[in-house]
Specification:
Number of strands: 0
Shape: globular
Helix content: over 70%
Strand content: under 5%
Largest sheet: none
Radius of gyration: 16 Å
Amino acid sequence: DRRLWPRDQTELYFLLAVLNCLMAVSANDLGYPRSAEELIRAGWAYATVIGHRPLMAHLRLELAGIAYWDRPRQSRDLAQSGLRYLTDGPNAAYLHLEHGRAAARLGDAETARRAITLANEAREREHSDELLEIGGEFGFSRATQHYMAGSAVIEIPQAETVAIDELER
């Protein structure tokens, strides 16, 4: 006589995906990127089952961040795939910048510059969801946006002045 109703099940899967994402961030920060990737994949399964597009985008973003250091091509592709799930708001801006940062590391300066412009445009478009309401690890401040833009631009040869401007903001 005990039953999980679909609404309850959706909330539970959402919370499990969020928890997996938070554990992945901690695992990566502690130096366990492979464990972090496994946790993100588990979170992806929950987010996919409930079709929560902003959460799916955020999980792609986290995975792109892990891949950036050793696998910039994969990082670029993951960030780009995250944009299929979220196009507006702060976290879409974050996806654009992660894409641009990886592109800059791969030597594609034009894509990196375009990503910064697209990030600014995405942030200006109205968007709200449960992740932004949670905030913290699931938010993206303007200061962090300028930091990410600066870290993308610094990878571009002879763009130090632009990078400094972004980082000072």
